[in-house]
């Protein structure tokens, strides 16, 4: 059977991302987990590029694989996690998690099997380019853009409030 | 969009400005009192702005927002609640924290999030509004870090809210994939073709999970009691009223636009959620010894009742729901106001022991608490009774018998624990209450007056509901 280059790339990316995502949750060592997570982010960025959304891919790598992952690694190394001080989880909790997660997976799989996905409209491929994205963001979607800046303001104030030094400096 | 479309958004812009003004006031190191008064005046300004733009309604601000009568009504209730909560916050935080000022920034931002939910008609604005609300709430819940439960409550809310946001986004993506639009009306147009597709139903289901979490409906209610108990009392009042009003408003608009109630499957899902919320909420409240936890479980049950008004999907249902939310907010605000007033610097007035024989020591406060509990229980002559009555009559019109039967039965169960608290109020107690010195007589007096007015409103709405109903109808016609 003939597989186009796109399909091969897609398949490889998907397999790597699934394996590394499993690695994130199955690995015992937190640092390995985080490294697997970075690989997952990169493969997802690859998917974005295949969808012709270069800007999204670049932002994804800079923000997630760059900033957030460094933060993750810092926290993990500062906390010096290892197996001894890790709190022991009760076993029934594990089973409950596995059962409910499995049930969700089953429902999702059943839904996906039934589904018929229509193909992408040809006009839609240009939307992910940075100039189109910028135009849309600052014309049609300018209000939600502003509101999301307020969202960041609230996150910032919240972080300052929680992280403020103990005691009263005023 | 053009500048004319900005006019109906004026109240929301002022609301956003209020938080920025608060930041500036803090930067200039002004006192708590100045910030409190300025915040109060800004909220009054929002009310005036809403009044000022009422002639331009309904106005659509494509693609994300629609400012119509229903939005104005729910925004009005939200602003009313934040005015009262802001007042309660003063005496609460002045006693506890050296620096209670940042609290107001977060309070106004969270209010803005809830207000955005009331005007959103698009998944994007829904999501941004909901996140603005939750992100501010994370910090608000954990605001008093040094108290033992606060950080735990904050963490619980953070983890569960993030999880529910993930569900929400996943559901939105699935619906977008099927319907090709994230605007509610766009989804409604595509609905005949996609309504039986499994992915669409899956998407709706995951969105119900997220909304159910925000409204603390069973089986997504597990956070409610701990978070209610751990957060500062004014914040608990905020979660119980404003956060839920905003979420319910957007659920209502979504359901109205896509005519959610036509689908038997959806009706079945919401009926199950409503019935289990009513039963579980009331049963878990039965043996609670902690007033804040008791109110948490009672709020689970109350949103179950509210869903019964939501089920029929008719005009009467919407009216009943709006009336219910107004009555419920006033009731809860007065109950939490009493808790705020009785809380001391060291501990919250949350265990029932504190309330033993309160009526002999502080008769006014105890009477107000009793009135609000009567209203929660739905005793005639209070607003809560009429609210339940309108819900029942809306349900009878569409013959949703099973939820109605459960509503009546569980109301009777609910009576037990509300009356138990009232019984405690009248008990005899040996502990002589040491009257604390009030540091801020002005704010204490105004809190007192507010509480009396709230309790008076409960009676007034309970006896003469005509004016409120007329107002609700007038607003709902503007669409």
Automatic annotation (TrEMBL), chain B:
Which keywords annotate this record?
Cell membrane, Membrane, NAD, Quinone, Translocase, Transmembrane, Transmembrane helix, Transport
A GO cellular component annotation in the UniProt record: endomembrane system
Transmembrane parts of this sequence: 6-27, 34-53, 73-91, 103-120, 126-145, 157-179, 199-223, 235-256, 262-285, 294-311, 323-343, 364-387, 399-419, 445-469
Any one GO MF term held by the record is: quinone binding
Tell me what reaction this enzyme catalyses.
Answer: a quinone + NADH + 5 H(+)(in) = a quinol + NAD(+) + 4 H(+)(out)
EC number(s) on file: 7.1.1.-
Q: Does the keyword NAD apply?
A: yes
Q: Where in the cell is it found?
A: Cell membrane; Endomembrane system; Membrane
Q: Which residues form the NADH:quinone oxidoreductase/Mrp antiporter transmembrane domain?
A: 120-413
Give the bilayer topology. Multi-pass membrane protein
Q: One GO biological process from the UniProt record?
A: ATP synthesis coupled electron transport
Q: Name one Pfam family in it.
A: Proton_antipo_M
Q: How does it assemble?
A: NDH-1 is composed of 14 different subunits. Subunits NuoA, H, J, K, L, M, N constitute the membrane sector of the complex.
What is its biological role?
NDH-1 shuttles electrons from NADH, via FMN and iron-sulfur (Fe-S) centers, to quinones in the respiratory chain. The immediate electron acceptor for the enzyme in this species is believed to be a menaquinone. Couples the redox reaction to proton translocation (for every two electrons transferred, four hydrogen ions are translocated across the cytoplasmic membrane), and thus conserves the redox energy in a proton gradient.
Task: Give the family from UniProt.
Answer: Belongs to the complex I subunit 2 family.
PANTHER family on file: NADH DEHYDROGENASE
- What this protein is called in its record is NADH-quinone oxidoreductase subunit N
Question: What is the organism lineage in this UniProt record?
Answer: Bacteria, Pseudomonadati, Bacteroidota, Chitinophagia, Chitinophagales
Gene responsible for this protein: nuoN
